[in-house]
Design a protein that fits this description.
The chain is mainly α. It has ten helices and two strands, in the order αααααββααααα. α7 crosses α9.
């Protein structure tokens, strides 16, 4: 009799885990679908994932905070896109439009903060400075944190190499725009994705799920600035790299620096504007 009960309990655990995995997968699909639809400015269709998320919000207790986070992120994305449409009508330079567009990411960040406040959760985003005496565990051997960051900075800086072979006409203008764009874009994207989203999901679900969601979501959101889907998905590997840096260092600042360097390279090489 005890053996039968034990088998039944184990089976129940297996079923519960299966349903949990299905639920989290469905949640991720809704989130990604919302990002894609709003990025393509299909606002009416984009409301469908929001409606499903609202239903799930009232249908679950365990993952309600994560559902809320996704809902308010998408609401922030909706406002961000509407704001982008509005500024596109302005008679200003393309550089200024780009800077304002990146600044509108604040709406997404505000959405996530509101969600955490309503869920009465701590607002955290790996704000501690790196511990320079820390050793990073790698697949083959540990490495000191300064060496780890130096390698990451060197790899990120390779994007700047093509810039030095170009003509230096208009250097001052492109340098000013590049620095302003890189600081605003990198800081806001990192605080949103590797800060608030990663720390919150990691706390409520699992680290693996948090990394996958934030990496793919980070890539897909680039559709909103006109980057094709396939290339946007490739950006997800950048999101994965930044997530690893944050988790290994327990600090968001190194990923912001790496992201700034990458963004500078994209501007200087003519990939932005």
């Amino acid at each position: 009799m005890k053996t039968i009960e034990l088998c039944f309990i184990k089976g129940g655990i297996s079923i519960n885990r299966s349903w949990t995995n299905i639920f989290l997968l469905f949640l991720a699909i809704l989130f990604f679908a919302g990002i894609i639809l709003f990025s393509y400015r299909l606002f009416v269709w984009g409301l469908l994932p929001l409606m499903f998320l609202l239903i799930l919000y009232f249908s679950t207790n365990k993952y309600r905070s994560s559902v809320s986070l996704f809902m308010f992120f998408l609401l922030g994305t909706l406002v961000y896109q509407l704001g982008s449409n509005y500024i596109n009508e302005w008679s200003i330079t393309i550089e200024m439009k780009t800077i304002i567009n990146r600044s509108l990411l604040l709406f997404i960040m505000i959405g996530t903060v509101i969600s955490l406040m309503l869920s009465k959760q701590k607002i955290s985003f790996f704000a501690l400075l790196p511990d320079w005496h820390r050793r990073i565990t790698m697949p083959f051997h540990p490495i000191k944190l300064p060496y780890f960051l130096l390698i990451g900075l060197m790899v990120s800086s390779t994007i700047l190499i093509p810039f030095f072979s170009q003509e230096m006409s208009g250097l001052k203008t492109i340098l000013l725009f590049g620095i302003l764009f890189a600081i605003i874009n990198a800081t806001l994207e990192e605080v949103i994705w590797r800060g608030i989203m990663l720390s919150s999901l990691k706390r409520n679900v699992s680290t693996f799920y948090a990394v996958v969601i934030t990496s793919i979501g980070f890539g897909l959101l680039h559709i909103s600035i006109g980057i094709p889907v396939i290339i946007s998905l490739l950006f997800s590997f950048g999101g994965l790299f930044y997530a690893i840096v944050v988790l290994k260092t327990n600090s968001i600042y190194p990923s912001i620096v790496f992201h700034i360097v990458i963004n500078l390279g994209m501007v200087f090489n003519g990939w932005i504007i």
